[in-house]
Task: structure prediction
Amino acid sequence: MSSIHEDLVELLNNELASLLDGEPQFLYDGIQVKLKSGPDLQIIYPSAEEYVFSWEQDSITLRIDTAPLHKKLSTFPNHFHSGDEVKDDNITSIQNSPGENLEKVLRFIGG
Result:
């Protein structure tokens, strides 16, 4: 498990625990948390500049990631998937720390 994931679990347990419905769980390549607001959030951080946040809301899969696929978006490489739609990611930034991005995603989801 990467130290980024360990640091994020520490942040979740120490500063963001009030948003969680249970303990963060380590996955093979990331973390999963159940939020009090409802969704399960999966967090994958291979490096500080590469990440995936994924959750389901109202039966729609939502995902923010940095895969360098959508070069025409103004937030490239960041992008936001809402079902089949791909659009600018105005929530996270590769310039932010992993903890800052996690907090922004949690606020967006409603945590």
Remarks:
- The two ends are 25 Å apart (CA to CA).
- The chain has one domain: 3-109.
